[in-house]
Specification:
This is Oligosaccharide repeat unit polymerase. The protein is an all-alpha fold and about 400 residues long. Helices cover about 70% and strands about 0% of the residues. It has a two-stranded antiparallel sheet. α4 runs antiparallel to α5 (about 85-100) and α5 (about 85-100) packs parallel to α19. The longest helix is centred in the first third of the chain and has 28 residues, at about 105-130.
């Protein structure tokens, strides 16, 4: 009883309330009222400032506020529904990430882990519900030439594309590396994470015919493994180094062999490949997404006021979130969002470059890598601005940890 009384204080009550909000938001953010979200985020921000008795400014605020205000004003003057709520939710998400983990270095990592666990649990459940709310065969073409007619969002009933639902799984997919490096410390947790990732492959890749979730799992694991090996090369046993080298050589060899067989169409291999999910839309390396991104980048600077159309895509859109902001608004907004992402990566690299870098740091950076790649090759967060909430939360927690560390 004394232990309960000891832990019942204003900070812990606010933390629990914030975690409840994050879970509900992660579970059904597309169905929630923007006004209610902004109200709650504003309350949490004010409480965070009161409890910490300070407000620390950083560069990310400039990019978030500027991008939100400019897009809202452009929409307002264009006579469409103003997206003023973008600024409120985006700024609120960053403030929530900065204040939810507190300033106590001793329990900061525990709080970060709890926040991430709550967030990813909500997202994962939403992903299962969305994938289960299925109305046709995988990638079935609807009347408008898109696959939007076969998938329906669970909480809103809105028809949408399956690739939008992949987002619900990708951050859990980024934790494979964390599960491996944390295996000795907590085997049960690591096994749970690996099983959840196996579930992602089964649902998205095997059942639904998707490939992005699996690719993001693989790319993030490779990136994090490379970083870990470079950073800890003196402490890693030779046996592990040799094993990783052999695996890397095998992967590269398989890639080269597949590329060669496809190039010469060995026994019809290229035709077979083109008929699989991996050959769809030009395959992996020649995917139409990359062509639209290249064209979008060129058009962003040749037509900086937006309104352009990429010629290689039937709807004229680039498969890149930030480039869509350039197309619909202007290049300055694009540069602001890119600047935020670069700032976030700078914070993340600074965090994992420390000698005292721990598994929680690797977990946060893995999530940052995955969400950045998703924003590079997908379009959903352009249309549905709530998806940025998770990006801002991740960067904010990374920045807050750097601030707390610098004060010790």
């Amino acid at each position: 009883m004394d232990l309960i009384k000891k832990n019942i204080n204003a900070a812990n009550i606010v933390f629990i309330a914030e975690c409840i909000f994050i879970f509900v938001f992660s579970l059904m953010f597309q169905a929630l009222s923007f006004n209610r979200n902004i109200l709650l985020l504003s309350i949490f921000a004010i409480l965070g400032i009161i409890l910490e008795k300070r407000f620390r400014w950083d560069m990310a605020y400039i990019f978030i506020i500027a991008a939100g205000v400019i897009t809202s004003e452009i929409d307002l003057h264009a006579g469409v529904d103003s997206t003023w709520y973008t600024t409120g939710v985006w700024l609120g998400a960053y403030l929530l990430g900065k204040y939810i983990v507190g300033t106590n270095k001793e329990i900061l990592d525990k709080k970060v882990f709890i926040v991430v666990a709550v967030m990813l649990t909500g997202l994962y459940i939403q992903g299962l519900l969305n994938y289960g709310n299925y109305k046709g065969t995988a990638e079935e073409i609807s009347g408008d030439g898109l696959s939007w007619g076969t998938w329906s969002e669970f909480f809103t009933g809105q028809n949408t594309s399956r690739t939008l639902f992949v987002f619900d799984f990708i951050l859990t997919g980024s934790l494979i590396f964390f599960a491996l490096v944390n295996f000795k410390k907590n085997k049960i947790l690591s096994i749970i994470i690996l099983l959840l990732n196996a579930g992602i492959v089964f649902v998205d890749n095997i059942l639904a015919g998707g490939r992005l979730a699996l690719l993001l799992q693989f790319i993030t694991l490779v990136v994090m493994t490379a970083i870990y090996l470079v950073k800890n090369h003196r402490r890693i046993p030779q046996g592990i180094k040799k094993a990783v080298t052999i695996i890397a050589v095998i992967i590269v060899a398989i890639g080269l062999i597949v590329t060669f067989l496809k190039a010469v169409n060995f026994y019809g291999f290229a035709d077979f490949y083109a008929g699989t999910i991996w050959g769809r839309d030009g395959g992996i390396f020649n995917n139409i997404r990359f062509q639209t991104i290249k064209e979008g980048l060129m058009l962003s600077f040749s037509q900086p006021w937006g309104g352009w159309m990429v010629p290689s895509e039937e709807n004229g859109i680039p498969h890149n979130v930030c480039l869509l902001f350039s197309k619909e608004y202007d290049t300055f907004v694009y540069l602001l969002l890119v600047a935020f992402r670069i700032t976030g990566l700078y914070y993340g690299i600074k965090l994992i470059s420390r000698k005292e870098c721990n598994n929680i740091d690797y977990m946060l950076f893995s999530m940052l890598v995955t969400i950045n790649i998703y924003f590079i090759v997908e379009t959903g967060p352009w249309r549905y601005r709530n998806y940025w909430f998770f990006f801002f939360m991740i960067v904010a927690m990374i920045k807050k940890k750097l601030e707390v560390i610098s004060e010790q």
